[in-house]
Amino acid sequence: MAEELVLETWDLQCEHNGREHRTAEMGCQQLVVRRGQPFTITLRFSGRAYEEGVDKLAFNVETGPCPVETSGTRSHFAVTDFPEESGWSAVVQQQDGDSLSVSLCSPPSARVGRYSLTLEMSTGYQGASCHIGDFVLLFNAWHPEDTVFLRDEDERCEYVLSQQGLIYQGTRDYITSTPWNFGQFEEDILSICLKLLDTNPKFLRDQDQDCSRRNDPVYIGRVVSAMVNCNDEDRGVLAGRWDDHYEDGMSPMSWIGSVDILKRWKKFGCQPVKYGQCWVFAAVACTVMRCLGVPSRVVTNYNSAHDTNGNLVIDRYLSELGVEDRRSRDMIWNFHCWVESWMARPDLADGYDGWQALDPTPQEKSEGVFCCGPAPVRAIREGDLQLKYDIPFVFAEVNADVVYWVVQRDGSQKKSIHSSVVGKNISTKSVGKDSREDITHTYKYPEGSEKEREVFAKAEHETRSLREEDEGLHLKIKLTEGANNGCDFDVLAVINNNADVERVCRLMLCARTAGYNGTVGPQCGMKDLLNVTLAPREDKCVPLRILYEKYRESLTQDNLIKVVALLTEYQTGDVIVAVRDVYIQNPEIKIRILGEPMQNRKLVAEISLVNPLTDPLSNGLFVVEGAGLTDGQQIKELEEPVEPQAEVKVRLDFVPHQAGLRKLMVDFESDKLTGVKGYRNVIIAPQPK
User: Fold this and answer.
1) 580 — phi, psi (to 5°)?
2) In terms of CB atoms within 10 Å, which end of the chain has fewer, N or C?
3) Contact 203, 210 (CB under 8 A)
């Protein structure tokens, strides 16, 4: 009888499998593979070689704390001649003396997560088993049968593999981009993402059921959307704050990446990290989803409605002086960011696969938890509000109507004719380049089109007629040139009288500092003209000068000034409202790279900025990071204040550890100027062999 087969050593071939599975950037310390795709391990026996027909080999894979076959969290499978289609399989690839190469493969519907791998060997009646290591299984956007399969290779590179990107902010009229270091392959991030899944309340309630549902990106997306915020006291990652008081944490404007946030969350025992706002919540969720293998991107919706009572109408109340009167919980945010993740929706009827909106910013509860989505973007466009999940809320964010009510002195309310427009310039970073892609058409049909009216009828919402009245008077607010921080600037009220009769009106112009979520601060500019006469067909421009000395103390870290114009026609009493958010531009950060960028060789960056303000900047510091470039964050504190109009220059050195196109991202903070961002693309040459 053949002697017992003895396993001497084994090799999980982390580096080779990492390259094949596009997970090499996660490092070669652990095996990370994608589901449905084979990976190779090598077994070396001592004493004698493996003999087919004499020796039997089988594997056990297990995930989660209570693995069972019926839940799909455990599988036992023998080494065979050909791969098994529906389950786990192991096939001998080649034999070389006492070394045996085996190809293992999971089904494309396997549960994602950390697995333990055990080898069982038997010869006749003798047997032994050996735990040969752990591996992590991810979703696979490259496998046609995976529910996250994405056909286009450039899109897979952008939405799964790219560790850096741009997030759009500012206003609808002045769109800005901020760089973001997603860093999903950086050291420790994968284990933190898996910890996030194991901290979620559904796992703590029923570990078996939770792990068994981890094959479904819809389920995972819902869990991630809930766990990125901490509003359910579920040990979530981020605490939100919108009031400009961030002294006991980090201002949301200061972050330039998800890595630091996720590492802080883990380091402090899963205590929420302070503080986030919508783009921070969305970016962290995007990191987690990309890390787990689900194609994801951050999108920005301008003039985003927060409709708390579900009537698809946002009522805003203004005094006769243009001051906002807070009677309604409904809000209009300058912009709002969420995540889209790409997945099939076998739980719905055909036609809803593809991009799904997921919103981790805590706004309204869904099934008792602060999370939102996944809502199929196609269902939002078609007005299919009854489908899962949370479609009415996202539909309102991009479609609600805004009605301004002017509250007269006697308390009566006058409905403004103008209805401002929600859901504009929905934006995301383009695939493979640093430009903006407008995806508004994926959320809504062109305004005024037949199709748009059909969708609204379906959504039982018939207030669109508001827009079609032409009262003959038109009012717009324009900006003369860029509004730079530290400078005075003009805004113009542009009035057109399109009628053949003279009109006599009162014009009120009021400017206030504002937050991006629609809240307003103190007044920083005002004009009240009691007698504006417009001849038939006449156009008039009325300027309002906004002085730096008036806005400098109350400008929030969002850098916004909200200008409201009220035009009241004396004869009819009609009131027209125009609103414009002016973005106050921060100075530019300049970045120069000195020397030839090469992998594993020191590189120097020279970073400079001019103080545009009339005050010196104290406690200044530059924060620099970039996946594959820097080892975590690098911080350079300034020893001296930066005098008004003076330039500050610093040099930082770092050693890029990965080749290819990378982004070096910089944030500047000080007492008077915060959240100033800049980035530079750097091509790192591979280390010569």
Assistant:
1) -140, 135
2) C
3) yes
